[in-house]
Amino acid sequence: MIRIRALVAVAAVAVVAGCGYSATPVPQAVTPEPAAPATTAPCTDTGNPTRSYAPAAGGLPSPGNLPSGSTMAAIRDRGHLIAGVSGDSYLLASRNPFSGVVEGFDIDMVNQVAAAIFGTAKGHVQLRVISAADRIPLLQSGDVDIVARNMTINCARWDQIAFSAEYFHSGQKILVQKGSGITQVAGLSGKRACAPAGTTSLDQIQELAPDAIPVTATNHTGCLLKFQNGETDAITGDDTVLAGLAAQDPYAEVVTGEALTDEPYGIGVNRDQVDLVRFINGVLERMRADGSWQASYARWFKPSLKVDATQPTPVYGR
Amino acid sequence: MTQTQAPPATVVTPPAKTARTEDVPKLLNRWQVLAVLACLVFAALTAGLQALAWHANRAAADNTEQLVRVQNIQSTLFRADALATTAFLTGGLEPPEQRAAYDDAIETVTRQITEAAEAQPADREALADLSAAVTDYNATIAQARANNRQGFPVGAEYLRTASTGLRDTSVEGSAIPIAKALVAANAERAEDELGAQHPFLILLPGLAALGLLFWVNRKLAQRFRRRINLGVAAAALTVAALTVVAVVVAAVQAGNNNDLEAGSYRASYRESTARTAANDAKANESLRLISRGSGQVYEDRWDAASEVVLTNASNETVPLWQDYVTVHEQIVALDEGGRYDAAVRLSTTTDAEGSTARLDAFDTRSQEIITASGAETTDALRSGNTGILVLAIVTLLLGIAAAGMAVWGIGLRRREYA
């Protein structure tokens, strides 16, 4: 009897010790620390922020006639223009995966500037794909000559860099599903609208449609992903960006009509290189005259935005 | 039996005082019960501890196999990600062989998840979540591919989402955090079982039984003026011999397991850690190039992964990793020098001078080392383990026999008294 009890006890110990592992814990989500809010630089200018430097008297100099000692001459002597651009903003500047070439409206602007310095852009442009946050630091350090990366001209930025005259007038619009029946921002009431986290675009939407449900993503393409996966009903942002998103999705359209905000785009230049700013403004004047701006618009944006546009009238006076 | 048996006369004339106050047959019964209990409890406990040791070795082998399996799942997931991101870089139409390699990797992961769930019930819940995460990842990669084939940049966003989602710790149910939890849990189980040989613990039942048998023998000696009771002494000798054997076997086994843990087990674990990090690094190399201009975050992750490889890879694979690092540095230099297309070419080509071939060389050798070290560990744990079980049975049987010897020995005295 004793022996049997002892054996049962041993067997019980063996079973308890050997077989019962506790279940592998499934890790819980770790909430990341929220990023520090961006600080806005103080603004010292109260005039129209789109004011730039007027082109030099006598018109645009020819490539062989660039003023000696000028920034343009230095770029020509180097052999290539270095431009900071976006790499993933479809229609503005993105890499064509088939050709490997970065192309878009902003790239057309860069090529026009290069052609004015070298006679032809071919072989004289070094595109440097940069992030939005790098635009100002790289201009200040002189690592890039110009930045053409859907950059809005504003007073605070003028304190850090210089801008060309406005080369495209963009504004905040909304992108919705075709056939959704939404024709204006107020129609977003009760619907979900997506914008990149940390931008003010959603505030504009909520002013006009207080019941709109905000959805955020890391960038606009992230919003398109949510749109395609049914996680948002609309995307808001600059019309140029939305045009690029609509072009990638046959079921999306940009709502036509008045924009919610004004986003004047300018080409960024180091603030000490006023001669280059004047030169670029001369190039922009020439594009207006020879129709090349219209050709670029018609090629890149017209199919998606479905409205005509004209090159913005430059404002000078700095 | 030619032992010295005292003439009955001496036995029947015990000290007068004792005879008056003690019931000798009752005392003899009591001592017999005590001696028998000492032998049986010793046998049960020692055999039980040996059975546990036998089971621990089996469990250690099973857990090591499961660890190798879940580490392989983790490495293969990163490998799939590296293949997907590299194929993506080549443009809209990805090379069929890279697509096939990606499909193979996902298939391996899926199959191993099923095998792992069968092997360890405690892992099933986590593996079910992992399986769901892998399905999500694969679906997002398919969307990335479909968009990339049409030349849409949103394809890159799908790819980034899939890649980031794979590793994301801020979202519940991400694949890699679950795989890491599985690796940690199985490593802990394997190491606990490897350390489950206790030579000192197995000594205790033997010492206790010997103490009791010594005491019983002394009492008998006091009553019957005989120094040694042959049956009790034989029982004590048996217990002592079994204890010595048990302790020696447990000590040898503990030493072997320590050697295994520090040797082939650790080698497999570390190489697997290196292989996982290596594939993570290659995926980040591609993501850096895909996220042109804002790829620094991926380069930082590459640096961290490379550090893990260098810390954990074996002497055989470190040189192969360094071969890869040389090419990676060229890719970074080309990219930073404005020669993006050349950087992409070096990263995506399958030629020997490209980073893909170098990574593949590392991955293949690394996998061989993991398989060999893992098998070495489990083979060592399983070979000779049956001997411990046989020893447990022998201990149990001889322990029972020792109890019989004690009964016989005390029975002699009872007969003398009668």
Automatic annotation (TrEMBL), chain A:
One Pfam family named in its UniProt record: SBP_bac_3
Record keyword Membrane present: no
Residues forming coiled coils: none
Top-level taxon of the source organism: Bacteria
Keywords from the named record: Signal, Transport
Residues covered by region (Disordered): 30-61
Domain Solute-binding protein family 3/N-terminal: 80-304
Keyword DNA repair tagged: no
CDD domains, sorted: PBP2_GluB
Record-linked InterPro entries: Bact_solute-bind_prot3, SBP_3_CS, Solute-binding_3/MltF_N
Cleaved signal peptide residues: 1-22
Similarity comment: family membership: Belongs to the bacterial solute-binding protein 3 family.
Protein name per Swiss-Prot or TrEMBL: Glutamate ABC transporter substrate-binding protein
From TrEMBL, chain B:
Top-level taxonomic group: Bacteria
Transmembrane domains' residue ranges: 33-54, 198-216, 228-252, 388-412
Alphabetically ordered keywords of this record: Membrane, Transmembrane, Transmembrane helix
Protein name per its UniProtKB record: Integral membrane protein
Organism taxonomic ancestry: Bacteria, Bacillati, Actinomycetota, Actinomycetes, Propionibacteriales
